[in-house]
Amino acid sequence: MAAIVEFKAVGRNYGAKRAVDDLNLELRTGELFALLGHNGAGKTTTIKMLVGLLRPQDGAVLVGGYDIVEATREAVSVLGYVPDQPYLYDKLSGREFLEFIAGMYGYDARQAKVLIDREVGRFGLASFVDDLCESYSHGMKQRTVFAAAMLHNPQVLVVDEPMVGLDPQSIRLVKDLLREEVSKGLCVFMSTHTLAAAEEIADRIGVMRQSKLLFTGTVDELRQAHPDRQPSLESLYLHLMNTEDSSSEVPPAGDSHAALGEDAKSP
Amino acid sequence: MSSDSSTGLTLHRHSVSEEAEAQLFWRMRLRFARAFMGQLYRTARLRSTLIVALSLLFWSGLFVLFQTGFYFVKHHVGGAGDPYHAQTFKLVFHLFFASLNLMLVFSSGIILYGTLFRSPESRLLMTMPARDARIVLHKFQEALAYSCWGFFLLASPMMLAYGIVVGAPWYYYALMAPMIVSFVYIPCSLGAVFCLLLVAKFPKLKLAIVASVAMASVVVAGRAIWATVNGPQIELFGNEWFQQTLHRFQFTQQEWLPSSWLSNGLLEAGRTLPPSAETTGFDLPIVQSCMYLAVLIMNALICHLMVVNAGKAWLREAYSTVECAPRQRRKIKVAWFDLLLERMLFSFPKPVKLLLVKDWRLLRRDPIQWSQFLIFFGLLGLYFLNLDRFRSQGNDLGNITWVNMVSFLNLAVVGLILSTFTTRFIFPMISLEGQRFWVLGLLPLPRETILWSKFIFAALGSWLPCAALILASDLMLRIDLLVVAVHQFTCLLLCVGLASIAVGLGAMMPDFRESSPSKIAAGFGGTLNLVLSALYIILIVVCTALPCHFYLIAGRGKLSETFMHPDQWRHWLLYGTVAAILIATVATVVPLSMGLKAFRRLELS
C-alpha cells in the first residue's frame, strides 16, 4: 500500500538548536500513528511541518503525494488538523465557524448543511453550536475543532494532544471516533503525552528524543525489544528515555533500532 | 468527491475560485462584525457611548482648531490669490500628509507583523486550503483599518475645515473620500510589503533596519523642526523665517510622494477660479484634481498587486522564520533599585512590603506597562519644559491670568492621564490576582493586606512622577509660591483618590475569567472607573483652582474694588480647600472600604 504521508530526511532548526533531525517516516491509510516524546523532543515541530505551518529546512514532507512546500493547497486539502490549543472565532457561533470551514473546502451551502449536521450529531455539539464560541469551555472548543477537522472527510487527520482538557466521556468519544475512522481508511497522526491512550488505540508508535526519532513500531515490538521490563507502554517508554538520557550521545536516526535491540524493526 | 453514509448523499467538492474565497472571508468578517456590534449594544452601552462621544468631542475640537487656524491664515497671511496664502496652505498640507505618509508605512508594517505572524487565526488559516495571498490580504485589511482610523480622525476635520474656509466647490467634498482611501492604501501596502520582505529575507536584520529607518526619520524631522522654532523670537513668523521654513520643508513636496498627490489633488479641488479667468478644460481645477485622484488610484492598485504577490511569495517562508526564531531566556538578577525600594519601605509591615516589591518587579519587567507610562509622561514633561514662552512678564494681568490658567490646566491634564493609567493598570490588578489567588489566598495574611498593598503601590507610584511633573510645570511658568503649594497639595489628593477609586472598583467588580488587563479595563468596571476618575479630577481641580486663580488676580484689575477684593477670595480659598479635602476623603474612603468589604466576601471558584 502506498504511503499517504512521507517524511523524507526532514530537518528543522530553531535558531541554532536542532528541533527535528533527519526524520524518515511513512504512514499509510487505515493506520493510527502515535508520536511520543518529552517536551521539546520535536513532536510539535514535526506536526507543524506536516500541516504546512513550518517549512522543512532539509528534506521533504509529502501528503497524499503532494509536497507540502511546492503544492501546499493541494496537500492541506487532504488533511484535517486539530491543534493542542484550539482556535475558534470568538464572535462566530460554532455553526458559523463550521460553515466557513465548509466553504473553504469548496462545499456549497446545501452540502455544508448536510456535513455540519453530521458532525454536530457525531460530536454532540447540538446544545451549544448556535452560541458564540467565546462562551465555550475548552472541551467544547476541542469538540468543535474536531468537527471542523473531520468536516471535509480528510484522508489524514493530524491531532496534537487530543485528550488534554477533555472529560472522560469526551475522551472515550474521541478514542472511539479515531478507531472507527481508521477502520474506514483514515490515517491518523497523533502526538500525545497520554501513554495509556496511545497504547490503547495506536497501531504504531514513534518515540522522539532531542530531535531524533528513536523508535518506530508497534507496542509489541517495543516489548520484545525489552523483555526484562514491565509490559506497559509507560514503563517501556520511561525505560527507553532513561536509557537514552544516561548515554552520552544520541544515536543517529538510522541506528536507532540498534539501541533497542535487533528485534525492534520498523514496519 | 465524498459520500456521506449517514445521509446517503454524494458530496462534490469544488475548487474554490479566488472570488468565492474573497466572498467567504468577507462574509465571515461581516458576521463577526455583526455579532460584535450586537454584543457591544447589549452589554457595553456605557463604554460604546463614551467612546463615540469622546471621539466626536475630539473630532470637533480638531475641526475648530483647524478652522480657526485656516481663518487666521486667510485673514492675517493673505486671502485667496495672495502668494503667501497659497504657499502657506501648500506647506501645511504637504507637511501634514507627508508626516502621516511615513507614519502609515511604519504603523501598517508593525500591525501586520502582529496580526499575521503572532495571531492564532493565521495559524488556523494556514492549515486550510486558503490561498497565501488571501490570508495576507485578510490580515492586511485588518492592519489597514487599525492604521487608518487615526488618519481619518486627524485628516477629515482638517480637510473639511479647509473646504469651508476657502469656500471650496461641491466636488472638493465629493473627492475627499476617494482621495483619502486611495492614498492610505499606498503607504499601508508599502509597509506590508516591507514587513513581509524583512521577515522573510532579512530575519536577523529586521529590527536593526526598522530601528535605523525610524531613527533617521526622527532625526531628519527633529532637525527641521528644531531649526524652525529655535531662532530668535523676534524673527519668528517674519518674511525671511517664512521663506527659510518653506525651503526647509521642501522635501515634503517632492512630486513622487503619494502625500504630494493627495495634497495637490485637494488643493486643486478647493481652488476657485475668478469669474474673469480664461481656462481651457485641461486647466480646470476639477480636471486637475481628478488627474491626481487617478494617479492615486492607479498606484493604490499597483500596491495592491504588490501585497498579493509578496504574500504569495513570502508568507510561508516568513512565517517559518518567525516561528523558528530562537527564544532567548531572560536571566533575572536582583536590581539595586529593588533593594533600594525595600529599604525605603522600612516603615511598612513585612507582608505589605513583600507585596509592594512583587508588584514593582512585575511592573518593571513588563515593558508594555511602563513604556506607555514613560511615553505619555515623557511627552508631558517635554511640553512642560518648553513652557517658557508663558513666563510671567511684569505685572500684566492678562499674562498672570494665562499663566495661572495654564498651570491649572496642566494639573488637570496630569490628573486625566493618570486616571487612564489607573484604569488601564491599577483597576485590573485585583482581577489578575484572582488567577494567582491559589498562592495569595493561602498565605498567612489577612485579605485586606493585599488590597492595602495595591492601594499604597498605586498611590505612591503615581504621586512621585505626578508631583515631579507638576513641579516642573510650575517652575517653568515661574508662578507664585502659593500656587505651587496648592498644586502639590491637589496632586496628592488626586493620586490618593484615583488610586482608591481604581483599587476599590477593581475589588468590587473583578473579572477573573479574563487574562488580558486591557480587556478588563475596557469592560464596564473599567469604563465606570474612568468616568468617576474624570469627575473626581474635575471637582478637585475646580475646588482648588478657581478660588486660587481669582485670589491671585484680585486687586490687580479695574474690577477689583467691587467684585474681586482679595479678602473675599481668601475666604473662598479656604472654602475651596476644605471642599477639596472633603471630596478627596469621600473619594478615598468610600471606594476603598466598599472594595475591602467586597474583597473579604469574595469567593473564588
UniProtKB/TrEMBL annotation, chain A:
Name any one GO molecular function.
ATP binding
Which Pfam families does the record match to this protein?
ABC_tran
- Per UniProt, residues of the ABC transporter domain are 5-235
Disordered: where is this region?
A: 243-267
InterPro entries to which the protein is assigned, alphabetical:
AAA+_ATPase, ABC_transporter-like_ATP-bd, ABC_Transporter_VariousFunc, P-loop_NTPase
- Keywords assigned by UniProt, alphabetized: ATP-binding, Nucleotide-binding, Transport
Instruction: State if Glycosyltransferase is listed as a keyword.
Output: no
Keyword Transport among UniProt keywords: yes
Q: Mind telling me what this protein is named? A: ABC transporter ATP-binding protein
Query: Which species does the entry assign this protein to?
Result: Aeoliella straminimaris
UniProtKB/TrEMBL annotation, chain B:
- Membrane-spanning intervals of the chain: 50-73, 93-116, 143-164, 170-200, 207-226, 368-387, 408-430, 450-472, 484-508, 528-552, 572-594
Task: Name any one Pfam family assigned in the record.
Answer: ABC_tran_2
Instruction: Give yes or no: UniProt keyword Repeat.
Output: no
Instruction: Keywords in alphabetical order, please.
Output: Membrane, Transmembrane, Transmembrane helix
UniProt-recorded name of the protein: ABC-2 type transport system permease protein
What organism is this sequence from? Aeoliella straminimaris
Q: What is the lineage of its organism?
A: Bacteria, Pseudomonadati, Planctomycetota, Planctomycetia, Pirellulales
